[in-house]
């Protein structure tokens, strides 16, 4: 098994300011005004989630209805117009810095691969929430689990096992704005917190 330096990056409020799904919802309402009524279903499922009648994945699927409305090219346009401008320039440089240092750079995010695949960031592996593809187009139906919390670690470990790799703990890095990423950050020695206010970096202490 080969030991490799790794750098694990969250995306929302880490590489880019704000939550990408909110950007997609706002974009969808502008393009499809009547889709605002789809939020009623989200509200119903939200109540079901609170009452433990609906899973987190089922709730998120109702929020992902824009994926059923847009083609791949439309999702590419959304990503370029609404997500790329929200990148923190210094965090893009941080990605490149770790890659140039020989780290295997992971972008691990709850955001959907349906549109995250259009990023041109200096990364090696993209791990996002996966949704079903029908006739070449992505849908709102989630495959597996939402790529969040401890499930990020499951995805990372699956990749490492498949490729016969082990993390060089001492020389690896983790970046996030959120305590929900503590399971991922525990995989490495060097942990960096990203400020939601301005994207500044500081030691992540927990």
Q: In DSSP terms, counting alpha (H) and pi (I) runs of 4 or more, how many helices?
A: 8
The fold-level CATH name of the largest domain is Rossmann fold
Which structural class do the helices and strands define? alpha/beta
Give a short account of the largest sheet.
7 strands, mixed
Strand order of the largest sheet: 5-4-3-2-7-8-9
The CATH architecture of the largest domain is 3-Layer(aba) Sandwich
Element-level helix/strand string: EEHHHHHEHEEHEEHEE
**Percentage of residues in DSSP E strands:** 15-25%
What is the name of the CATH class of the largest domain? Alpha Beta
Strand segment count: 9
* Cα end-to-end separation: 30 Å
In total, the number of domains comes to 2
| Unreliable parts | none
Global geometry: globular
Proportion of helical residues? 25-40%
Mean pLDDT: 94
User: Could you name the CATH homologous superfamily of the largest domain?
Assistant: HAD superfamily/HAD-like
- The Cα radius of gyration reads 17 Å
